[in-house]
Specification:
The complex is a heterodimer of chains A (about 300) and B (about 260). Chain A is an alpha/beta fold. Helices cover about 40% and strands about 20% of the residues of chain A. In chain B, strand 2 (about 125-130), helix 7 and strand 3 form a beta-alpha-beta unit. Classes of the chains: A alpha/beta (about 300), B alpha/beta (about 260). The interface of A and B includes residues 20, 49, 60, 63 and 67 of A.
């Protein structure tokens, strides 16, 4: 995703002179190297200074530029939180804060580099939009939206490297709309971000295929679309690389209560617990009860 | 002191005192220490396309008073300061009446200015920022000071209101190593000048608008200036004078 991000943004920024890329000690990758060389005025590395990264991006937006602030997700959102809240959200500026390697992706780096609660935090901010594309295709759509349509601050939560595309044959991406990626019958998985791979791995093994949806826009959330899903499926599973507090699982279960959804809900989220564990991302997720085996076993056991 | 500036400053202070009688409290001390600085910017130096950021947002009433004199904020709006029917609260709100940034949390204004300065890089437009000396305790300020000189954002003009008081104590009580301020700026790659922040002529003389490096004016000021019973007294950080104090203060301004 990092490379897709660099490629798409560099492509748009080469044409649109209003686009500025503000990074905090991130070396440009792929196509961004070339962009930086040709446009040193519009590629700004503030160094290890995340508060400045957000302040500078806000200032640029106040002068009608289109800035992208970009670094590893913990440092993009948590470190400069008050600048995001006051400079970006309170002043309602169209700045995109790109959190790279979100969730448990940096699985050997420890809790300082993991983002378990970013959606919860970003959701609580008035004016903030949240985008979490599930593959490089969706990421390109998100960048297009942020450059050409967005009028508000956006937290763009992305993966790192090597993610495959799952949405080649899906319905059109639309901001704020839950998107069906693959169609099945009475059970569906709602998810966002690169963990969509796990849903596909499970589905591959299932005899009775399930539907998989990408909830790429976490805020504003598509409650209308969710209501349709309540009507269509007897079992709804949420799958996320995020805490069980304030993420997709929470969104779906609280709305299900409100709408008196009569089916079965099951959520796979991270526990409200820090990791003191280093290993593969798969191992980290397993430690918090999220695995292909468990999800497969659950779905296979559904009687209907 | 220049006669026009002196009259403007008197008018601004009287306006603030008038408003003080309609609200339970206001930041009169920190507003009074910045009057000459902000007067010089708005009535002399700032071109229409330049930007001014009040990073010490608690002096909002001072900015409103100046914008009122300049006709940007109407009397009836200023009368509704901190009232439910008005738009003006203690701290400035972005986009209301040409206010260029929402401030009130210290340590934000200079970062915004840095972004604006990058956007205006190849123009003659300037970004003026007023910060307080207490604000120099915020880490974000030093992050940005280092960044601004590294990026050669020479279109930033920073004014430091050095009244040596913060809300509860002297800045040197909590930070005895705050001084020298000027050497800190030069070691961070800036140009600077020290001046008497209540002498309009000196402010104008010392402000270098064509500096080859980002420029900071360190203005020595007195919180509550020129009111005898307010000067250097931390209790006037956030307080309205009672009627007796109000009359005495008005009297002192007339004679000043």
């Amino acid at each position: 995703m990092r490379n897709a991000f660099s490629k798409k943004l560099a492509e748009l920024a080469s044409k649109n002179k209003k686009i500025y890329i503000v990074v905090a000690d991130i070396s440009p990758a792929g196509a961004m190297v070339d962009f930086q060389k040709k446009n040193p005025d519009r590629f700004i590395n503030v160094g290890v200074a995340e508060q400045t990264m957000i302040g500078v991006s806000a200032g640029l937006a106040m002068k009608k530029k289109i800035p992208f602030a970009y670094t590893i997700s913990t440092f993009a959102l948590y470190r400069p939180f008050e600048m995001i809240r006051t400079d970006l959200c309170y002043q309602n500026l169209p700045v995109t804060v790109v959190g790279m390697g979100a969730g448990t992706i940096y699985s050997t780096l420890g809790a300082t580099h993991l983002t378990q609660e970013d959606i919860a935090i970003a959701r609580a901010l008035p004016n903030m939009q949240i985008l979490a594309p599930c593959d490089p295709n969706e990421l390109e759509e998100c960048i297009n939206f942020c450059v050409n349509k967005s009028k508000k601050p956006t937290y763009l939560r992305i993966g790192k490297a090597g993610e495959k595309n799952y949405t080649d044959n899906s319905t059109k991406w639309k901001f704020g709309k839950i998107r069906k990626i693959t169609a099945g019958k009475s059970t569906c998985i709602l998810t966002f971000g690169p963990i969509v791979k796990l849903a596909f791995d499970v589905n591959k093994k299932l005899k009775k295929k399930i539907s998989i949806y990408s909830c790429h826009t976490l805020k504003p959330f598509d409650y209308q679309g969710l209501e349709k899903i309540f009507k269509r499926y007897k079992t709804i599973i949420t799958l996320e690389d995020h805490s069980n507090i304030g993420g997709l699982g929470d969104i779906v279960s609280s709305f299900a209560g409100k709408k008196r959804y009569g089916g079965q809900l099951k959520s796979y989220s991270l526990k409200d617990k820090f990791f003191h564990f280093y290993g593969s991302q798969k191992q980290l997720l397993e430690l918090h009860g999220i695995s292909e085996r468990k999800i497969y076993k659950f779905i296979s056991g559904i009687k209907n | 002191m220049q006669p026009a500036s002196k009259e403007n400053c008197k008018l601004i202070r009287k306006k603030i005192l008038d408003i003080s009688q309609k609200v339970s409290a206001l930041h009169v001390g920190g507003a009074f220490s910045s009057v000459e600085l902000i007067e010089k910017i708005f009535f002399k130096l700032k071109e229409k396309s330049d930007t001014f950021i009040l990073s010490k947002g608690h002096a909002g009433i001072l900015l409103y008073s100046v914008l009122n004199i300049l006709g940007k904020i109407k009397n009836q709006e200023l009368d509704l300061y901190c009232k439910s029917k008005g738009d003006l609260g203690v701290h400035p709100d972005y986009n209301n009446y040409g206010i260029s940034a929402s401030t009130g949390s210290l340590g934000h204004g200079l970062g915004l200015a840095a972004g604006m300065a990058i956007a205006e890089m190849n123009t003659t437009k300037k970004i003026f920022v007023l910060i307080s000396d207490g604000e120099l305790q915020e880490g974000s300020v030093w992050e940005t000071i280092l960044f601004i000189s590294s990026r050669k954002l020479n279109n930033i003009v920073l004014l430091v209101d050095n009244n040596n008081l913060q809300s509860s104590t002297k800045t040197t009580d909590t930070h005895p190593t705050l001084y020298p301020i000027d050497k800190k700026f030069t070691s961070f790659g800036w140009n600077f000048a020290n001046c008497n922040g209540h002498n309009s002529l000196e402010i104008e003389k010392k402000l270098n608008l064509n500096s080859k490096k980002p420029f900071a004016l360190i203005a020595k000021t007195i919180k509550g200036y020129p009111i005898s019973f307010m000067k250097n007294d931390p209790k006037w950080h956030y307080r309205s004078p009672d009627l007796k104090e109000f009359k005495k203060a008005m009297d002192e301004i007339k004679k000043n």
